[in-house]
Structures are given as structure tokens and as C-alpha cells.
Here is the input.
Amino acid sequence: MHELGLTQEILEIVTQRAQERKVTRVVLEIGKLSCVLPDAIRFCFDLCAQGTIAEGAQLEIIQPPGRGRCRQCGAEFDLHAALAHCVCGSSDVEWLGGEELRIKTMEIA
Amino acid sequence: MCAHCGCADGTESTMTNLQTGRHVHLDSAGREYVHEHAHSHGHEHAAILRLEHDVLLKNDRLAEQNRGWLDGRGVRAINLMSSPGAGKTTLLERTIGELGPELGLRVIEGDQATTRDGERIRAAGCNVVQINTGAGCHLEADMVGRALRQLDPPRDSVVMIENVGNLVCPAMFDLGERSRVVVASVTEGDDKPLKYPYIFRRASVIVLNKIDLLPHVDFQTAAFEQAALELNPRALIFQISARRGDGLAAWYQWLRADGDRAMP
Here is the structure.
């Protein structure tokens, strides 16, 4: 549900940077552990961009995987869900990556 | 339609100071804080701009401002989150009765609509500012910053921020709080932490409420605690009944001691 507000924020940033030139492409990074649904962002993006300089812009979403470090044994490993266990058995995991929610690049015509 | 001033759009965010009756719409002036300065590049060919811009940057900066403002006054802010109906407001009413004057407790109430919870808090004897988020599903840092200035908490006091009842969206938005508390209740199912892991994994304290109803529901407290601690091994868990009063001593002790422990 928060994806609508986030998409509005994304479009605000993008249109401000475009300075009235046509936005043709936006590349977002949405980490796999970010609590944000890429499909919902896509849906909201098309709707919210209507009537703006970003209307019709192509939206590309990169999804970096989750990465964690065990606080017990220090091992690093990929995270595929919020609850993950290290091979040592501990679930006390520091998140190193996967929570990204970032506008990487944009293209203007 | 807004019940206070008759404005047309009930989906806007509003803030009501229940002491003064001051009622304002946040969107009208709330977006002016951090904005980028436009400057012309003077060229018209297609271009790729590298932004590397965190979408939550504006909120996070405002949250840091709130944190600085609070720290400057020695005020501890606690972000209280749960699903709707878990008992946040009842827990606050009880806490106000027990610790309100001692902690100089103040409350920011977040709901989509109505000042009902704000009225309950005021009736319990506590200064409160009600935020109505309209269509919004969570509180954001700019709303809380404005509410804090309305609330004007005294030095070395505690501000409880009751977030909008929702176990998903509030997890993403830093408000400038020192600690996060998640309230769950035994009428909800003991697998709540596993189903909503994001909010539970960043809580300093997890309160399990309504334990007076345990004889009547199929809720395994051991399963709940195991799931919560697997997600968040450093969380404190308090089993309480805000209605009957069970287990509240540990909660009060944590509040008095400050508790805190930095946010994980």
C-alpha cells in the first residue's frame, strides 16, 4: 500500500531533475528485502506518470539480492527471506544488502 | 469531508492539537523541506543522469532532524506499532495512569480518521496531538516533526508515538524515535512475527497483549516467542494484559529505565 506514496516520491524526484525535459527511462533499484513490491511500483508508476513529463517512460527495476553477516560466527551469505539461518544455526543476522530503494539513473530526451 | 473545517478532501493528512483545537492540513506546506535546486544545463540532447538517490532520503533526513530536536531536549520518543485492535491505545491509557506524571508522558496519535483515540488519551489525563493520515497507511517523519512542535514536550520527558494500525508500511519509515515497540495480541495468531517479519525484526520490545484471553483462544505463547526471537534475538518480550493489568511491571520498568538499547 505504501508503494503509491513511494512512486509519487520517485516521480517528484525524477521530474524535478528532468527540468521539464521529457523523461524516457527510469532505472530503480529495489532490494529483495526492501519490503517494496516491484509490481506495485510498476502499476503505480504508469498511473502516476500520466499527464507528467514522465508519461510513457520505460521503468526498469533491478533487484539486488539480500546479503547478511552472522553476528555469532561472522559468516557472510545470501539472504532470500527476512528470516534466515546461518550454517552455524544462528538467526541473528546483520543485513548488509537487499534493502535498497534507490533511483539509479534516468534518461531524458 | 473533513469534520473540522469542512475542507473537501478526507484523504489529506491533518493534525489536531487537542489542547488548543488547532487543526492544520499537512500537505499544504509539508513538502517544502528538502528540495533540489533546479539549474539549467543548456543542452538539449538526450542524456542519462546518474542519480543514486535514495527514495526515502527526504523522510530519513527529517527523521534525523526530529531525533536531533528530541535529543536536544533529552526527550525519548517511542514508536508504538501494531495491527489495528491489538491494544496500543489501551496500553497507553494504562501507562498514562501509572507513569504519566513521572515520565512527563506526551502522546502523538496516528489514525487514518477521527480523533477518537486522541480523545481517549486526553481523557486519561495526557497531552496529545492527533494526526489523521487520510489515505495514508503510516506516519512519516514530517508529520511527527510538526506534531512534536505542537506538543512541545518538556525536557527529559517521554513521547509515545502511536502509529497507524498496520504491520507492514510503518516498518519502513523512520520517525526519529529512539526505540520501536511492536504490540501483538493473542487474538491474532501466534505466527504473526513470521508473517510480518520486517516490523518485528527491528523492534526493541515486543509486547504480547490480551493474555487474559488465553484460555479462550488457540494461541501458543511459546511458538510466538520462539518465532519473535528467531527473527529478532535481542528483542525483549513482555506478556501483558493492558485491560487487566497482568505483566505491566516489566513494561513500566523498561520505560523507566529508558529503555534503551539503540535500535538494532
In short: Chain B touches chain A at residues 35-36, 38, 40-41, 44, 46-56, 58, 136-138, 166, 168-169, 171-172, 194, 197-198, 201, 230-231, 233-234 (CB under 8 Å). The two ends of chain B are 41 Å apart (CA to CA). The CA atoms of residues 206 and 237 of chain B lie 5 Å apart. Chain B has a mean pLDDT of 88.
